Amino acid sequence: MENQQPVDSPRKTKQFIISEELIAEGKWVKFEKTTYMDPTGKTSVFGMGPSVLFLALSSSVFRTNLKRQQKAKQKVTWETVKRATRKGQSADGVTIIPVLQRTLHYECIVLVKQFRPPMGSYCLEFPAGLIDDNESPEAAALRELEEETGYKGDIAECSPVICMDPGLSNCTTHIVTVTINGDEAENVRPKAKLEFVEVISLPKNDLMNRLEVLVAEEHLTVDARVYSYALALKHANTKPFEVPFLKF
Known about the structure:
The protein is an alpha+beta fold.
């Protein structure tokens, strides 16, 4: 059976960036006003009665003004935050999922707790950082992991470039999974290079519950990537939702 489109469905225009105007720029980020083509192109002609619409369309002046309105109303501005540090890297940075593995221990996820001024609170996050010039995502992940946690690990997988908060920013990242051999001497009592970051390891099989306890006790804000990962683990280990039996 063919899919039928609604008769009154609006015509969609291909969206694209028209211009980008710099508003302000700092050392790490910049603020821009982005103008782009809107998909709808609605004008004031909609909502008129049939007789009024017919008379209006018969006027060459009206048709000229209508075209101008369509062009004007299709152009929409958007306030955008961008990294001022982006150069030729594949993405702005890396987000690391460190899996700590030790003999006779449950696997743990290594997280970092640090104060985030924009949030005004301490946040619980995956280790993360920017990719340096001429640095691969994998190399950046191992470097950032050691700087923030002291752990040294091995790359398990690296995601393609993904966006972070597309409604606000063009910031991108690679999610890199790193396995850590906790039995190796260098990983028994690792020391982070960053002074103001606290390292917290939580069991992978109980991650969601442990996060909820920390939030309740320490009033932390959990990064969305950490919470999504914990939620995915929880869903993967629970029974599938039962399909309700419907009576007809």
